[in-house]
Design goal:
It contains six helices and no strands. By secondary structure, the protein is an all-alpha fold. α1 runs antiparallel to α2, α2 packs parallel to α4 and α5 runs antiparallel to α6. The longest helix is centred in the C-terminal third of the chain and has 30 residues.
C-alpha cells in the first residue's frame, strides 16, 4: 500500500467516524503520513515503508476498529523509530517522564524515608518527574535539530 493510498483510506475513515478517540488516532496517523510524504526517501526506503503499510493491513477490515488502528499506529511508529530513527513529537519527554516517576518513587522511599513516608514519596515523585521531563525535552530538542522528528 502506498503512502498516498493509506492517507486516503485513513482520511475517509476519519470523516465517517463520529467517535472522538477514533478520530484522534486517525489524525495522528494522517499527521505521520503527511510528514513522511514531505521527506525525501530513496526507492528502497519507500519500498520498505510500503511493505510495512501492507503488513499493517489497514484496509483489511471495512469497518473502522479503534483497537486495530491504535495497534497499527504504535507498530508503525516503532517501525519508523527502529528503521529510520524517526520519532514523533514528545517521544522522549513521555519516555523519560515515566522513567523519572519510577526512579523518583524509588528515591523517595529509600533516601527520603527519614521524612514522613508519604512526604518522602511525594517529593521523590515530583523530583523524578521534573528531572525526567527536563532530560526528555533536551533529548527531543536534539532529535529535532538532527532532523529525525516527525
Amino acid at each position: 500500500m502506498t503512502i498516498q493510498k493509506a492517507y486516503l483510506l485513513l482520511e475517509n475513515l476519519a470523516s465517517k467516524s463520529s467517535n472522538k478517540s477514533e478520530i484522534k488516532i486517525y489524525e495522528k496517523f494522517l499527521d505521520i503520513l503527511t510528514k513522511l510524504k514531505e521527506r525525501s526517501f530513496s526507492k528502497e526506503e519507500i519500498k520498505l515503508l510500503e511493505t510495512e503499510l501492507d503488513h499493517l493491513q489497514l484496509d483489511s477490515n471495512p469497518e473502522s476498529n479503534k483497537k486495530q488502528y491504535k495497534k497499527a499506529l504504535s507498530e508503525f511508529e516503532k517501525f519508523l523509530k527502529d528503521t529510520f530513527s524517526l520519532t514523533s513529537k514528545g517521544y522522549y519527554t513521555k519516555l523519560m517522564g515515566g522513567l523519572g516517576l519510577s526512579f523518583g518513587l524509588l528515591f523517595g522511599v529509600v533516601f527520603l524515608s527519614n521524612l514522613e513516608r508519604s512526604l518522602g514519596i511525594s517529593l521523590g515523585l515530583i523530583g523524578g518527574m521534573v528531572t525526567g521531563s527536563i532530560l526528555g525535552r533536551y533529548k527531543d530538542d536534539e532529535v529535532k535539530k538532527a532532523g529525525n522528528m516527525l
